[in-house]
Automatic annotation (TrEMBL):
<dbReference type="GO" id="GO:0008652">
    <property type="term" value="P:amino acid biosynthetic process"/>
</dbReference>
<comment type="pathway">
    <text>Metabolic intermediate biosynthesis; chorismate biosynthesis; chorismate from D-erythrose 4-phosphate and phosphoenolpyruvate: step 1/7.</text>
</comment>
<dbReference type="GO" id="GO:0009423">
    <property type="term" value="P:chorismate biosynthetic process"/>
</dbReference>
<dbReference type="GO" id="GO:0003849">
    <property type="term" value="F:3-deoxy-7-phosphoheptulonate synthase activity"/>
</dbReference>
<dbReference type="InterPro" id="IPR013785">
    <property type="entry name" value="Aldolase_TIM"/>
</dbReference>
<dbReference type="GO" id="GO:0009073">
    <property type="term" value="P:aromatic amino acid family biosynthetic process"/>
</dbReference>
<dbReference type="InterPro" id="IPR006218">
    <property type="entry name" value="DAHP1/KDSA"/>
</dbReference>
<keyword id="KW-0614">Plasmid</keyword>
<keyword id="KW-0808">Transferase</keyword>
<dbReference type="InterPro" id="IPR006219">
    <property type="entry name" value="DAHP_synth_1"/>
</dbReference>
<comment type="function">
    <text>Stereospecific condensation of phosphoenolpyruvate (PEP) and D-erythrose-4-phosphate (E4P) giving rise to 3-deoxy-D-arabino-heptulosonate-7-phosphate (DAHP).</text>
</comment>
<protein>
    <recommendedName>
        <fullName>Phospho-2-dehydro-3-deoxyheptonate aldolase</fullName>
        <ecNumber>2.5.1.54</ecNumber>
    </recommendedName>
</protein>
<dbReference type="GO" id="GO:0042802">
    <property type="term" value="F:identical protein binding"/>
</dbReference>
<feature type="domain" description="DAHP synthetase I/KDSA">
    <location>
        <begin position="58"/>
        <end position="351"/>
    </location>
</feature>
<comment type="similarity">
    <text>Belongs to the class-I DAHP synthase family.</text>
</comment>
<dbReference type="GO" id="GO:0005737">
    <property type="term" value="C:cytoplasm"/>
</dbReference>
<keyword id="KW-0057">Aromatic amino acid biosynthesis</keyword>
Length: 367
């Protein structure tokens, strides 16, 4: 068949673009190995990471009767304030180390319900310029400094490529409520070197976390990048240190004794270690930081009676209580969260002491 000449034929002769219709730019990132070479891990840092991972594994498996405590800001937006907080937390870690394994929440990646600031790696200048190339070295430098204080770090893994840049500095990882059901994140967890907590879903469903643990404990093969920054197929061995983190859901909190018993029973039925971490924040405190002490008081009371299923707790805590909004890239209050509200330092300190007391009582019960 012959085409008619005219405008239609001209249109057909043009190549039809089907790719990059919504891509505004692609900027190269340095390879993970290049970043690690410019910001290397020394032996002391490696020791802090490795020792804490081993301690957390032992706590989760019930071989160490201490309590894991993951405490720190909802997100890091100011490295100076994070280091100020870290210095205080490091002191508490050393003072309470016979009862608590304290790890700092150093969260750089924020999963948003719709849109919002995505964290220090994505937008380190807090102004929407999204200079990930600046955020990665900032994050790695901060993790090195925190580990150098002898304080191990915990983070949420959100992007599947970024762990290559800093996962060597992380003692405990979380997969968040919005991504626990994602196969990509389960695969990622199967290859991470640290213990990983899977949050229950935002709707409160715990089954997705149990399914995630089963999935992440198995080997997977999936696309990834190498340390040299090349596309590759990663084949993992599976991660045997995954566990549930209860964070409440749309129906309300799930830190109570009945919930914990039900989750432990479901885990046992699925052949999963029943060690549970309770997040005092998020839907367990209806996102009101002032309610975290209520949650911790309840959980600590149960730990005092010897409840060994609760192996860890998480607190959202910063230097200054509450939260603030970013104003034109400016942060009005030093040491206050720009994402979810946090407890202030003095209240956080009091909770750490209470948890240490509860863990000591449980240790005596077990002896
Ligand atoms: O912990 C952080 C937040 O709860 C999470 O990132 C969702 O935040 P958003 O609902 O404000 O987007
Ligand atoms: C986003 C977080 O939690 P969740 O996934 O439970 O909402 C968080 O801990 O920062």
């Amino acid at each position: 068949m012959r085409f008619r000449s005219g405008p239609l034929q001209k249109e057909r002769a043009m190549p039809i673009q089907t790719e990059n219709l919504h891509i505004a730019a692609l900027r190269p990132l340095p390879a993970p190995a290049a970043l690690a070479a410019s910001l290397p891990r020394d032996e002391a840092v490696s020791r802090t990471v490795a020792d804490s991972r081993a301690a957390i594994r032992a706590i989760l498996a019930g071989r160490d009767d201490r309590l894991l405590v993951v405490a720190g800001p909802c997100s890091v937006h100011d490295p100076a304030a994070a280091l100020d907080y870290a210095a205080r937390l490091a002191e508490m870690r050393h003072a309470l180390s016979d009862r608590l394994e304290i790890v700092m929440r150093v969260y750089f990646e924020k999963p948003r319900t719709t849109v919002g600031w995505k964290g220090l790696i994505n937008d380190p200048h807090l102004d929407g310029s999204d200079r990930i190339e600046d955020g990665l070295p900032l994050a790695r430098r901060l993790l090195l400094e925190i580990n150098r204080m002898g304080l191990p770090a915990a983070t949420e893994f959100l992007d599947p490529i970024l762990p290559q840049y800093f996962a060597d500095l992380i003692a405990w990882g979380a997969i968040g409520a919005r991504t626990t059901e994602s196969q990509i994140h389960r695969q990622l967890a199967s290859g991470l070197s640290c213990p990983v907590g899977f949050k229950n879903g935002t709707d409160g469903g715990v089954q997705v976390a149990l399914d995630a643990i089963r999935s992440a404990s198995r080997p997977h093969s999936f696309p990834a990048i190498t340390a040299e920054g090349r596309a590759a197929i990663a084949t993992t061995t599976g991660n045997d240190a995954c566990h549930v983190v209860l964070r409440g859901g749309h129906g309300g909190p799930n830190y109570g004794a009945d919930h914990v018993a039900a989750v432990a029973a479901a885990a046992a039925k699925a052949g999963i270690e029943p060690g549970i971490v309770i997040d005092a924040s998020h839907a367990n405190s209806d996102k009101d930081p002032a309610r975290q002490p209520e949650v911790i008081a309840d959980v600590a009371a149960r730990i005092r009676t010897g409840d060994s299923r609760i192996r860890g707790v998480m607190l959202e805590s910063h230097l200054v209580a509450g939260r603030q909004d970013l104003r034109d890239g400016q942060v009005p209050v030093y040491g206050q969260s720009i994402t979810d509200g946090c407890l202030g330092w003095e209240d956080s300190r009091a909770l750490l002491l209470d948890l240490a007391g509860a863990a000591a009582t449980r240790l005596r019960c077990a002896a």
